[in-house]
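Re: weekly structure request thread

Next one in the queue (246 aa):
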Amino acid sequence: MTGLEDVSEMLDRVRDYAYSPQFAEYAEASALKMVTHLFSDAGRTWRQAAKHNSKGRLIFAALQKELRGPIGAAVRFQVERNAAIIKSLPLDIAKQVNEHVLREAMKGTRASEIAEQIKAFFPETSKAKANLIARTEVSKTATALTRARSEEIGVNWYIWRTSGDSRVRDSHKLMDGVLVKWTDPPSPERLNGEKRTFGNYHAGDIFNCRCFTEPVIDLDLVSWPAKVYYGGRIHRVTRRQFERIA
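Done, posted below.
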């Protein structure tokens, strides 16, 4: 935005950048880096878990063929999805700038003043939006990869884990330590009796969520009785009861 004084010229520059091949390459490279980092990280976690349970050989075999099967497809899907979101960032900012210009023009603000406001507005807004996208999409990607890996070897349940600090939203505190089936995500807000809900989703699958999924690969490692989500409610069950519903 340096050297630009006209608002329409600013918006044209943003749109040109959004559609440029250079930005497309940057978005795809950033998305690939994000996903492959998580893929490698999660792989280490699963290899460590494999040392301590009876499904070790099965997990190791699954890890070797991941990129050729459903896991590879999940990786490619997340890369494409995240790249598309990154590419949309400049256009989303341009829309916000347009709305800001309209509001100020209706107030009678001079064009030169609006241009100065936009210069201050753009970097802060783009940075905040980028940070939100990064936090949300990294979390969603981690959950998607864990789910794909779990389903590949027949692990149908996970334990919802929170970050355990004061920033955890109340509805997610309620889910902490609860066993959840991959095919039956809960609505934490509804379970917590809140009026505003965001539908059904898994740990890490909603904006600004820092929760994560811990696959249940060995029932001996679960502390029984345990909290389990099924039938639209959270129940406390024994291991025998869980095995009947699992």
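The beta strands are 157-161, 179-181, 212-215, 226-230, 233-237. The chain has two domains: 7-152, 157-245.
Next request, please.
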